[in-house]
Each structure stands twice: as structure tokens, then as C-alpha cells.
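sorry for the late reply, my laptop died twice this morning and i had to redo everyting from scratch. anyway the thing you sent over, i finally got around to it. pasting the sequence first so we're on the same page, its 129 residues, then the predicted structure underneath. double check i copied it right bc i was rushing
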Amino acid sequence: MSRDSIESGLELRVTNILQEIGIPANLRGYYYIREAIIVAAGNINVISHITKSLYPAVAQKCGTTPSRVERAMRHAIDAAWSRGMSESINTVFGCTVNVNGGKPTNSEFIALIADRLRLEKTARQDNES
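ok and here's the structure:
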């Protein structure tokens, strides 16, 4: 399988998860979050340095500033939580977030989805061998 097909498969999976959760695709934060999850799925260590490495990387790729990336991501997550799609959120996040309680931070949100994708990839590879 080529690297391009792996990356497009990952992008499609991330897109499906974000839509399932209810993040509106018309928000800039939607695209920033998608890009951040793809980066984090490839290197989970960037979550530890979200303001120093992840936001600037996404900002550079999208032609904006790290502070705008952070703010737009936060707004997109707020929008998803305010839509009240608790079943979908529980399906994606399980018991790791409380739908009725506070929403996750940007880094928690990105890390949870990126880690899920990495685990799915590992499970697929284990099944293939």
C-alpha cells in the first residue's frame, strides 16, 4: 500500500470521526483539528508540546497563526459539545469524557482521537500478520 493511500485513508477516518461527533465542517477549526489529529497520529509526542510544535505546524500548513489555530479548534469543540450529540461522543470517546460535564481541552480531544486511530492501526496490522 502506498504512503498516499495510507494518508488518504487516515484523512478519511479522521473526517468520519469528526462528522460523527458533530463538529461543523463549515468552521475553520474543523480543518485545523483534522490536520492536528493526522500529525498527532503519526507522532503522538507532539501532544506534549501542543503550543510549541503542533499549533505552529498546523498554522504554517494552513497559512495562519498558532493563536488562531488554537482559538478556532476550541470554538469547533465547543460547537460539537453544544450540539448535544452525546451518543456519538460516547461512541468515539467512551468513558474518557463526560458529555454532561466539561468538554475536553484541545490537546485532550486531539490526543484521544489520535490514540484511537493508532490503536486501530496496530490492531489491523496484528490481524494481517
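The chain has a mean pLDDT of 85.
thats about all i looked at so far, will dig more tmrw
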